[in-house]
Structures are given as structure tokens and as C-alpha cells.
Design brief:
Strands 1, 2, 3, 4, 5, 6, 7, 8 and 9 form a 9-stranded antiparallel β-sheet that branches. By secondary structure, the protein is an alpha+beta fold. The chain has 2 domains: 127 residues, Cyclophilin (Beta Barrel); 127 residues, no CATH class. Helix content is 45%, strand content 16%.
Amino acid sequence: MDLNFSAEGQNWPIRLTGDADRTRRALLSALPMRLQLHTPKIAGSHIYWHAPFVEDLEGATHVLAASAGTFIYWPVRQFLEITFAPLQAENAEVTVLGHLDAPVEGIAELAATLKQDQGRRILEGTLSRVDGRVPAPPAPSPLPQDIVAARKALWGACPSDIGQATSSRAIMHPAGPVFTAESEARVLHEFLWWIRAERGTGEAMRRHAAALALDKAATRLRDFCHMEETPALLFRLKAAMGDAYPFDGLIDEAILVAGRIGAWLDLLIPWNDLNEAFRAALDGRRA
């Protein structure tokens, strides 16, 4: 056993395997990790949380080939996941980091609780090294310190404007603003990954594309979703894209920010209740 995953008063050992050395180093440098669990919306039989690092695909295992109990990193979506049964049809490649060193039934039970409770409460957990080793402090960042500090604060706690997003009872609130904000953040996050991958494209064009994407998402969050604190950080990142800061580090910082915004918003949404209501409405219409 190399890692210990804990949630809801239970512990599960994870053994690291394979040759994904670069991603493994990034993972270990981020431990111990406090995490919030998310229920899947498409692939099904897994639990996941967001990774506080950005790494390219390593090893390229098709996600449907991941056996029950596989511990994976999913670039672009930036998820760390534990599977407990075959996933539903998706076409993507992932990095395999290891395998659950325990029966998968416990994770399946946790997933069932998570499915019912997401949007009602946040299920938190931890991921830590069994040997207790603490990573060395990272080297100072060459990026603006206000951006780095704001990103760390964002990862540490849910911003107040996101936390209050479900409080309004105006017409079609809170569903309209929350769904809009979550989709804006998710699309921004994915698009920034696409820009990151375009390494053969001129840097000036990539900076411009990133700045436009950040500006568009920040404007929607501010003007349509009634947020202030969260879009302010996106606007700050947009401005930094026009300065001489190292682009590789800056795009990774933007990805970490966009992904975490989307993650906090996702946790507000009772996905299972909504899916059941959607099914019921469709079935009623057809009756």
C-alpha cells in the first residue's frame, strides 16, 4: 500500500503501479490532499475529485479498458478517479496511476451515497501517503503573486459568491444562474486545455485565444450569474495574458483556476434528483 484514501469515516488503500513517473511525481508533491467528491454524470461507475496539478497524458490507456478498482488521472477534465465497475461508453484516454488494494464494493457503496447526496451536502475526503513523507516546498512562482495567492485561496475554500449562488428564488433561480455558471466554467476549463495542447501554434495567438476565453467566461459569470469575486480572478488572468509572464506557467494557472471554479459549482447541483425529475417529465409527456 502506497496511498490511503479516506472518506465518510472509512479508509481504502491504493497501490501505485505503472510507469507514469511524471504524473506520479505531480501527485505525490500535492499530498496530503483534502478533496471533495463528485458524482459522475456520463461515464457512471466511478468516483472522482479534481487534481490540483496539470499534467499531460502519460501511458494512454483507453478509459473503457480501466478495470474495476483502477486509480486514474484524466487530463483535460483534470480528474483523479477510482473506478468500481465498467464505465459507460466514453471515448477518451487516461493515465493509469495504480489500483485499489481492497475490494471495490466499499467504493461502490460510497458512490451510491455520493449519488444521492451531491447537491445536498459535500462529501469530503483525504488522500495521503502511507509513509507520511511531506514534499519539499515548491520553487517560487515567476507568475504574479496576487494570482498565485488567489488560486490557492480558491482551492482552499469555496468563494462566497459561489456559495451563495443557490440562495436566490427569483424567476428560474437558482437553476438558471447555477447551470449557466457551471457550464461556462466547464467549457472555459476544457478550452484552456485545448489552447495548452496547441504547442505548435504561435504564442501570441495562444495568449490572445486564452484572453478571449477568460474574458467571455468572466463576463458571463459577472453579468448573467450575479458574481463578483470569482469573475474578478478570471479578469485578472485575462490581463496577465497580455504581459510578459511565462505562458506555460500562466496557462496552467488559468486551467487550475477554471477547473476549480467549475468544481465548486458542480458540487451545488443535485444531479441525481434532477436526472430523476427529467426522466419523470419525459415519461409523463409520452404517457
